[in-house]
Design goal:
InterPro entries: PepSY. The chain is α+β, with helices and mostly antiparallel strands and 238 residues long. It has helices at residues 12-17, 43-74, 81-93, 98-108, 163-174, 181-188, and strands spanning 5-10, 19-27, 34-40, 112-121, 124-132, 138-143, 150-155, 193-200, 207-213, 219-225, 231-233.
Length: 238
């Protein structure tokens, strides 16, 4: 008597993607079905996963190497021990960040912050923030770097008669810009303590110029793009 054997494949998707499937063989009406388990390994998927992992690790290594190169290019390599000590003292005095100082100045005087510098006023430090108002007037606002309070402000006089031309140049540089001075300071803060932010409106690739100081007093110069906020080493003096 001939036997009719029917094989039903269960979990076909497992065979396609790699996995385990069970086939049932039926031999006649009186016999119990026999099960057979088949395991299929998808080597292509394993190789793809390994390749993805390698690519990710390589990307991370390349990004790390690029950041290291940028950091090296931004450092002031000709600084001596005295300069580093002075830089470290400046950074220590900046308990209020450059970004916070700028925001405090703008609350006091509305307009556009164009620069912020941590100045040494003899025995004390002060954040000096230059603000350009909508009417074209220049205001210098002083911020206490330890408390963030406004110490004073004054309108700057056009002694040399070139404020109008400079103002027009600055407004043109900032036209279409999406990155403010405060945002540039925040972006560069990842590189160290920001001690200065200033708009470079004269270069071909206009940007925010930012000075930072590391914990050991090493100063670095950065440029922050006006449209993307990307931070790169300042090579304009190379």
């Amino acid at each position: 008597m001939k036997r009719n054997i029917v094989i039903a494949t269960v979990a076909a998707a497992a065979l396609i993607g790699g996995g385990t499937a069970t086939a049932i063989a039926v031999a006649g009406d009186d016999e119990a079905p026999a099960k057979k388990t088949v395991t299929v390994s998808n080597d292509d998927n394993d190789r793809d996963d390994a390749q993805d992992t390698d690519d990710t690790a390589q990307d991370r290594a390349e990004d790390k190497a690029e950041d290291k190169a940028e950091d090296q290019a931004a450092r002031d390599t000709d600084e001596d021990a005295e300069d580093k000590a002075e830089n470290a003292a400046d950074a220590k005095a900046a308990q209020i960040t450059a970004a916070d100082a700028i925001e405090a100045a703008l609350k006091h005087t509305s307009g556009t912050a164009v620069s912020a510098d941590l100045d040494d006023e003899g025995t004390t430090y002060v954040w000096d923030v230059d603000v350009l108002t909508g009417g074209g007037a220049w205001h210098s606002v002083q911020i206490d770097p330890s408390t963030g309070k406004v110490l004073g402000s004054h309108t700057e006089k056009d002694d040399d008669g070139d404020d109008a031309a400079e103002t027009a140049q600055i407004r043109d540089a900032l036209k279409g810009s999406s990155v403010t001075a405060a945002e540039a300071a925040k972006a560069a803060a990842a590189k160290g303590t920001v001690t200065s932010v200033d708009l470079d409106e004269e270069s071909r690739d206009k940007a925010w110029e930012v000075d930072t100081t590391a914990a050991n007093g090493t100063g670095s110069d950065w440029r922050v793009a006006l449209d993307t906020g990307k931070v790169t080493a300042d090579r304009t003096n190379d």
